What does this fold into?
Amino acid sequence: MGRKVLLEHIDVPGINTLEVYRKKGGYASVEKALKNMTPDEVTEEVKKSGLRGRGGAGFPAGMKWSFLDRKSDKPRYLVCNADESEPGTFKDRYLMERIPHLLVEGMITSSYALGAKASYIYIRGEYMYIVRILEKAIQEAYAAGFLGKNILGTDYSLDLYVHPGAGAYICGEETALLESLEGKRGNPRLKPPFPAVAGLYASPTVVNNVETIAAVGPIVMMGGDEYAKIGVGKSSGTKLISASGHINKPGVYEIEMGVPVEEFIYSDEYCGGIWKGRKLKAVVAGGSSVPILPAELILKTAKGEQRLMTYESLADGGFVSGTMLGSGGFIAMDETACIVRNLWTFTRFYHHESCGQCSPCREGTGWMEKVLHRLEHGHGHSGDIDLLVDVAKKIEGNTICPLGDAAAWPVASAIRHFREEFEYHVKYPEKVKNPKHFEVEPFVSERLLAAV
Amino acid sequence: MAKVTIDGVEVEVPDGTTILNAARQIGGSVVPPAMCYYTSLKDTGGKCRVCLVKVTQGSAKDPRPMPKLVASCRTPVMDGMVVQNVTSPEVLEARKGVVEFLLINHPLDCPICDQAGECDLQNLAYEHGASTTRYEEDRRTFEKKDIGDKIKLHMTRCILCYRCTFVADQLTENRVHGVLNRGDASEISTYIEKAVDNDFSGNMIDVCPVGALTDKTFRFKSRVWFTKPMDAHRDCDKCSGKVVLWTKGDDVLRVSARKDQYGEVKEYICNECRYDHKNINDWTVEGPRHIDRHSVIGQNHYERTDLLKLKQEVERQIEFQKGKPLPEPNKSLTA
It folds into this structure.
């Protein structure tokens, strides 16, 4: 079993209470940081660890922290992005539900490093029961003296608040999150200026994902260099992967960076292989926003090297033959899965969640969904496939925020790798009118036969 | 001051100027079109994506190009920036794409829309649009509503530039309308119909780039190119009183604020000047208003200054001949 940093004590009964959590070494990083380290030293440890943003973008956390404008006399804020809405991702929910104090500890240590006096956890409104769990954990922390005025007798004070959202994927984008936190419409802002300079209430702000902040506590305890030893190259440490789809053991797994994808899917330690004895067809490796890959390209790169679960290895091949680690929402599909139907489901999501500010995303997502609806229900014609590629190309890069790119990449990659399936839908409309068309008669391309 | 080169033309502008404003100082075809940006309103711009340009050199200090196309109406210039607008095929492709996206849910209302002839979207579609549409699906529709008692909202035509919300926010004390829902179900609305009653609310009609917000007192009265726009003013204690009267003969069909060459109003007018004074004698008329000669509004040649000169020449001749004896008749012709 690989080393576990975040989920080490997840199965201890009562780990969600402060008493048990403390007994297992919890909040030690708060004591170490506030009493023995300066804020800059904590930032240095995070930089040395090579921790990268775990929300999807993978931006080095230590570097983001160092961009924070420390010269301004405005108050600084740390905001935790717990708006986990990326389809296929449910790792933050697992962490916050079972071991909320890990996040609270990480928030305190990180706020100390950034010099924030008030920090917020913005959590999606659909996780209302987790809001109660977190509030209870925060109350326990206040009672024990880990939050509030003069924490542990030092002159550092911190107030931590939980703010629920109201059901918008777009509020997971950092500037839209800040707008929503300020009480306004969740529309993303134009960047620059970046939140590190002008974020929440036009003050310097750092926005980080739940998993990123939860890792700060263990990093401070073991030291940044020790954390950097786990993993491969620039992808250091461990990552929570929420595996779902046609596998035998779906769930949340904490893996060391660098585990081969083949081992992750087939080994009993992790997903346990494809269910019902079927064959793997396609994988969406990091939430629906990343390119979808066929089985032969997810297990090996285009050059024939083994693919590992790291940022670099999954991105090998760019958009032509690669994908991204993203948020870690790993969805595996077997040979009965219809790529067109799954793509339609994804575009339905993006159409519903677009904020509507900029024209390409607002209109383009609706257009792609409607074309795919027709294709999947047997009313497509041959011009539709090239139309989808063209629309995706015109959305990508022309939008205010990355939701436009996230809507365009799955469409472009699915057509690039599975074009024969789309053509099948155009050629045999009567067969595809049955929603279970590939369970009745799996679509087999020569490529699939040759691969696995 | 910063030097910026746009399409090969160099201009020097104060720091903090946006690329669009720098291009407007050069003028001509170098200026990218802009639909959601409004100079006199803060924080507008960046939404419609029509003004996207390519920055091939960020600045003299850091010459890396910007990876994506940027909205020129919200990007400040840096010294040494090199920008490509119409000289870049990528920019033209993107602009075509954006215009296509704006037209897929936009109804084909031109034959019955009051804004025809002075519509930003019409002008853009003429320059960058395709001759047929590729969109075969259903379009999103809304009911026509009155959001003020003199303003009719056609939400199907709205391109969600948010200009009306900004003008209500920044010009009036309280904004009662806003955007509900998200995505392409976004709707400009008040929760209570006809709730917009502020004295400067009529300016929403002037800032709307398409025919979504229309003046009910002018609705269906005439096409704009059959009217004669005249500059006029009156003494008004609430606003500047400087307007454009759109007249047909002696009738004032519509009163609106004066827009500059980029379609932006500099001095706003109050509702009284706009709706309540439709008699030409209420106004001091200054003269014909020059609308850009490319606009279809000028097609009625109301401004034929060559005819005006001829008239003045005839009057001068009459003055000159006054008091002089008539010339002797030519006897050989009248015998």
